[in-house]
Design goal:
The chain is α+β, with helices and mostly antiparallel strands. The chain contains three helices and six strands. The chain is globular, with a radius of gyration of 16 Å.
């Protein structure tokens, strides 16, 4: 079963796979996987045969758990920055429960 159909536009962030068995993965913190986290750029692929090349790749293999379906009404060029810089900002704001009236500094 897949959440994608042929022709669907998929977005991929900074990860393409993880072990999904360690405590961090089971708790939804795959980015902290110490067993076999596979980042989009510069990570050893799970098969051990290559290094991920991210946007410089001719093709990309990613587990659908790490891909997002991009709605047809959104422009890909507007969505793409959210998959890196956007989540880099959103994730800590959510983690620390930042809300209206609070001040933060974003360094990137």
């Amino acid at each position: 079963m897949t959440k994608f159909l042929p022709g669907d536009l998929a977005g991929v962030g900074t990860m393409v796979d993880s072990c999904r068995a360690c405590a961090d993965c089971r708790d939804g913190y795959e980015q902290y996987c110490k067993v076999q986290g596979v980042l989009t750029y510069g990570s050893r692929e799970k098969d051990g045969k290559g290094i991920t090349q991210g946007g410089y790749s001719d093709r990309l293999v990613v587990d659908e758990h790490f891909a997002l379906k991009v709605p047809a009404n959104l422009a890909p060029a507007a969505v793409a920055p959210l998959l890196c810089a956007g989540i880099t900002t959103y994730s800590p704001l959510r983690h620390w429960k930042v809300g209206p009236g609070q001040m933060v500094g974003v360094v990137g």
